[in-house]
Amino acid sequence: MTEVLDTSAASIARAAECLRQGGLVAFPTETVYGLGVNALDAAAVKRLFAVKGRPPNDPLIVHVLSFEAVAELLAEDLDAGPHSRARLLAQRFWPGPLTLVLPKSSRVPAEVTAGLATVAVRSPAHPVAAALLEAAGIPVAAPSANLFSRPSPTRAEHVLHDLDGGIDFIIDGGGTGLGVESTVLDLTEGDPTVLRPGAVTVEMLREWLPMVRVGTAGGDRPGTDEGAQRSPGMLTKHYAPRAPMVLFEGPPEAALDALVDRARTAAASGARVGVLVVREDVNAFGDFGVHLVEIGSTGDYASIAGRLYAALRQLDAAAVDVILARDLASDEGLGRAIRDRLHRAASEVVEVK
Ligand code: TXA
Ligand code: MG
């Protein structure tokens, strides 16, 4: 029932027609795979929520080709403030991994925005996503193409694993580059606020809008729940590995020592231990039996972001009893987004002094 398509023009034309008819199409973006649906078709949007098992209070991002295409989605009486900020940021960062939350027009169905008066919009920087939007000629609402509570998919195989049979097409564009979802920036009231950190970093945004704030659910204190009012669907826990994940926070050496101790004890008691490990730490595990999945070097956040979700899927597939990981030491740049995702996945955080 689900057909995997290549990225030829003919395939994209079929996928675009399917979207116009109310179908569900997974496609690659520069961040993760999205599951697309016609954003103006409320019935199709409802089907999408059902297929993903997504709670209806979690609003979707609407994908567009350019800032010009956003106009029909926004409130007619949009204040000059949010509008000029949105235009400035779109000029600087679109197409790209930046989602802007703005007051919506009545054309956007309540199903898309979970009943909120705002809509999230972004223009993806991936040739396949852009070609699909161009061919479809409609705004496309697209959450990440995973089952609810699974890691976002960074390869077509991940989408197939979660949604085979439930959706019409998957366009296989290979691995996505960035690996973590877009930055979500709320422009609706007060100072612009980062609701979810991503590859367009807080530092990059502040070069253009120095007053940008970071929402508490967005990374200043990752794992807390306080951004909830502003973004009702932004659950603290958005991916829960099958096995509980324990995150070790603190000075790198001390955190690693504590993690290795826990791994040794757990392995000795017969548990299957999985470790999300950075290259520098691999040797610390000697020869006791743990399942190591390497995610790159601590100096290279781009490679960690690119591999993080695939690594979590690998550990789930290995049916480990517990997953251990060391937190990054820094919120700088992409580090903030990676830490945010690690904290959302963790069920226990161990603070090491
Ligand atoms: O990179 C991405 O953003 C990917 C690709 C496919 O574009 N999409 C993605 O969608 O990550 P999803 O549905 O997994 O995450 C959407 C996020 C949620 O955290 C949601 O709460 C927030 O955007 N969001 C959507 N509409 C919102 C709104 N009106 N107000 C506040 N937050 C909103
Ligand atoms: Mg998601």
Short précis:
This protein has 353 residues and is of the alpha/beta class. Helices cover 31% and strands 18% of the residues.
Q: What gyration radius follows from the Cα positions, in whole Å? A: 20 Å
Question: Into which percentage range does the β-strand content fall?
Answer: 15-25%
Low-confidence spans: 218-229
Strand order of the largest sheet: 1-8-2-3-7-4-6-5-9-10-11
Alpha-carbon distance between the termini?
53 Å
Number of helices: 10
Count of strand segments:
16
Could you spell the SSE succession in H and E letters? EHEEHEHEHEHEHEEEHEEHEEHEHE
| Overall mean confidence score, pLDDT | 92
Which distinct ligands sit in these coordinates? threonylcarbamoyladenylate, magnesium ion
Instruction: State the helical fraction.
Output: 25-40%
Quaternary structure type: single chain
What is the overall silhouette? globular
